[in-house]
Amino acid sequence: MKVFKPGDIKHIDNLCVDKYQIPTLILMEHAGIKISEEIQKKFNKESKVLIMAGKGNNGGDGLVVARLLYNLGYKVKVLYLGNYKTGDSKINFDILNSLDVYKTNSIADLGELLLWSEVVVDAIFGVGFRGNLVQEYIDIFSMINNSKRYVISVDVPSGLGSSNYTFNNIVVKANKTVTLGCLKENLLLPTGRENSGELVVSDIGLPKDLMEQFEVSTFLITPNMAKELLPKRVENSHKGTYGTGLIVGGSLGMSGAVILAAQAALKSGIGLLYTLVSEKLVDVIENNCIESITIPMPKGLIELDKYLKNTKSVAIGPGLSTENNEVLFLYFVENYKGSMVIDGDGLNLLANLKLHDLICENHVLTPHPKEMSRLTGLTVEEITSDPITVAREFSVKHNCTLVLKGSTTCIATKDGDVYLNTTGNNGLATGGSGDVLAGLIMSFMAQGLSQDEAAILGVYLHGLTADIISEGKGYYSLLPSDIPKELHKGFKKIQKG
Ligand SMILES: NC(=O)C1=CN([C@@H]2O[C@H](COP(=O)(O)OP(=O)(O)OC[C@H]3O[C@@H](n4cnc5c(N)ncnc54)[C@H](OP(=O)(O)O)[C@@H]3O)[C@@H](O)[C@H]2O)[C@@H](O)CC1
Ligand SMILES: [K+]
Question: What are the tens digits of pLDDT across the range 417-438?
Fold first, then answer.
């Protein structure tokens, strides 16, 4: 599903007017209708609604809601923050003036108005919000957030920056956000997700042709997209049909990482799996992954060639220490020509040895923000405040697939597209989750998916399965090892669509 930058909306507005002859006043009316319908679904006509109308068009939407609900018999009060000298908001303010609706621009009355209200319509700022908040707005937002009223935000929760930036760290916290016409990037990033409440995308009559033709480079991974990516299973098949993969990893005290990656690969349809570990770990891997073939690390790496010949994909890094593994890592990055996931200490070796020039189109890198920081030299804050841009710039520069992990994971392709994933939950914030993901992506590449496809499906399935498990287990008790065990439930849900 297409995801738009807040900056795209101005462009869409202009095209509506210039190319499709749709005045923005019509769109504003539609927006108001949709918001008022959402309120009618939850609150009856006896309800007291406080409309907080900002000075731009977001405020104008709020003024329409005030009029529509007043006409329906709701008890409506408006606290307006603009002068409304021109434009669609002025027209709606003038219409409202002709009605007997209570209005004030006295911010000093906010406390009393909040006490009076049952529902607050947050129409203070929409996609036109920029930069910092002055103290007056910080106070307004705090009062709304502390009021314990049901808050419905128009388009975006007010104060949400254009990316994951929070500027003053305060955003209106909504119970529901009705976003107008299309999904916006900032709503899908962590700050947006934390503050939007239930997210509804509302059709406000933007022309279908315009929305289909408008080019974007950010997409949300949908259930349908995941379903289409599932590797096909055929009746007349054998283990060769579903590919051979190899996991390279493990070190003393870190054998579990290989086991987790291997179990994920084995439970996601791979034809044949090898694990390559140091001799000391062979027994523990053998005991825990009976379906895989364990290769003890040979003295001469050239001996690996016989295994790699038929191996379609590799995951290198789970549990691999950075100590004494430089030669091994370099061997794979330089010689292996199939698809390869580089995870965990594989990424740290890549960064330590400055091997960025060896990253290529066959590679899927799966860093969390700290690993991304080592790879790029950016701070973790710089990465998490604008993860879409950071991921996109890296994948294009290095011609690879990049999976930047987070509560919203960004999968960036060499072509510059970014796919956002919103499955998964805080129960995944545990050592070992990433190893499972590396195993899944490697397995899907072995089964014939491209690097981008495998990353998209792997990330989506990983999070979805965690969500299914958490329905019963909650978040505290979710273990990475639960995911391979319950993977069949994730597959089943994807297959159902
Ligand atoms: N096509 C669509 O989708 C449609 C979209 N529609 C709606 O329009 C909305 C976008 O409207 P918009 O462009 O007028 O911007 P909006 O969000 O109201 O804010 C701008 C105002 O905020 C102010 N301001 C900004 N930052 C500030 C700060 N830090 N601190 C203080 N003030 C700050 C800024 O002030 P200025 O910088 O100009 O002084 C300006 O006055 C969109 O979200 C949707 O609700 C619908 O009407 C129907 C069609
Ligand atoms: K808003």
Answer: 999 999 999 999 999 999 999 9
